[in-house]
Amino acid sequence: MSVSRETIDRLKEFSNLVCRWNEHINLVAPSTLGLLEQRHVEDSAQLSELAPPAHTWIDLGSGGGFPGIVISILRPTTRVLLVESDRRKSVFLRTAVRNLQLNAEVIDQRIENVSPRGGDIVSARALAPLRKLIPLAIRHGVSDTTYVFPKGISYQQEIAEAKTSWEFDVDVRPSKVNKEGVILLMRNFKRV
Q1: pLDDT tens, position by position, for the chain (192 residues)?
Q2: What are the residues facing 104 on neighbouring strands?
Q3: C-alpha to C-alpha distance for 119 and 158, rounded to whole angstroms
Q4: Binding residues
């Protein structure tokens, strides 16, 4: 990942914030703290590299800020909406947005209760299987939205299950971080 020194510093500041807060609330699994840069930051950064340009990026289930905060650091001109219903995590996200002076907004509601937002990009990392995720995500898109979903080894099964209810275009990209993982770039959803 080729980024400016300022961007690297902001990513490090965010990582430090995650480590400090993780002592009090579970932002990331304690077993992955030692691999925070690779397991979470680089994994999130690859989404920014794969996604097209966007005015608005909506991250559903933002949790510890992966990928939403990382996206906001890497794409400072993109407005990032971070949707997180867990009050403690939304307080953390607001702290990160304020401390890092990001072009982002935290929405502390359940995804299904958030009014449609019309994002150019909608992402969700480790939130739900595709068959449950699609109806939640498409409410926040428009006709040309790209949906960016990192998935694990069972992604083919998830796609097959989703195709029983939906038609869609999907571009499967290998993860640069997780050899068993992929990034799904999805578009053009239609109910079957």
Answers
A1: 678 999 999 999 999 999 899 888 988 777 666 666 767 789 899 999 999 999 999 999 999 999 999 999 999 999 999 999 999 999 999 999 999 999 999 999 999 999 999 999 999 998 899 999 999 999 999 999 999 999 999 999 999 999 999 999 999 999 999 899 999 999 999 999
A2: 80
A3: 23
A4: 61, 66, 111-112, 125
As a CATH number, domain 5-191 is 3.40.50.150
Can you state the angle between helices 5-22 and 87-100, rounded to 10 degrees?
A: 150
Binding residues for S-adenosyl-L-methionine: 61, 66, 111-112, 125
The domain ranges of the chain are: 5-191
* Residues in a beta bridge with 57: 80, 121
C-alpha distance from residue 52 to each of 30, 57, 71, 91, 159 (Å): 33, 10, 12, 29, 22
